Amino acid sequence: MLKPGDTVDDFTLLDHTGAETVWSNLRGRRCVFFFYPKASTPGCTKEACAFRDMGGDFEAAGAAVFGASADSVKRQSNFSNKNELTMPLLSDPDGVILKAWGVWGEKKMYGRTYEGIIRSTFVFDEDGKVLRVWSPVRVKGHVEEVLAYCQDL
User: Fold this and answer.
1) What is the tens place of the pLDDT at every residue in 114-144?
2) Domains along the chain?
3) In 3D, which of 71, 24, 62, 73 has the Cα closest to residue 44?
């Protein structure tokens, strides 16, 4: 799992519109990346909609918000359209950043152990250095906490 002070390798992923998001092109902006297990599930929808609803506040705080999961571009697109999401949703079915950033790992639910996305959020500075990590994340109140952190920077 990434920790404060870490930097990440350059990557290119498609967002929900099929457009490329290139990490090196994001330099110069503070970025928030939130990882969710599966588009259109209740917790993921609640979290994404909270980021949507506070999008203007994140923008005012100088932070660009990105969502990411292993879902396909089509599934991300459907999720975005259905919920009128305003941030790019990155599709990472091959685990390019999911694994490199440490958000893909062992999970337990109902006594079953399996591998999947650990709900996590990262804030990066303008130079691409990790400032803060939340993992695992509980959805309730999380977006407000991330926003407050960004506003205090």
Assistant:
1) 999 999 999 999 999 999 999 999 999 999 9
2) 12-152 (3.40.30.10)
3) 71
Q: How far apart are CA 102 and CA 112, in angstroms?
A: 21
CB-based contact 144:132 (threshold 8 Å): no
pTM (2 decimals)?
Answer: 0.97
Rounded distance between C-alpha atoms, residue 66 and residue 28, angstroms:
15
Residues annotated as catalytic are: 44
SS3 128: coil
- pLDDT digit string (tens) for 40-52? 999 999 999 999 9
- Distance in angstroms (rounded) separating the CA atoms of residues 23 and 52: 21
Residue 42, preceding peptide bond in cis (omega within 30° of 0)? no
Query: What's the token pair of residue 140?
Result: 């309730």
Q: Are 26 and 128 in contact (CB under 8 A)?
A: yes
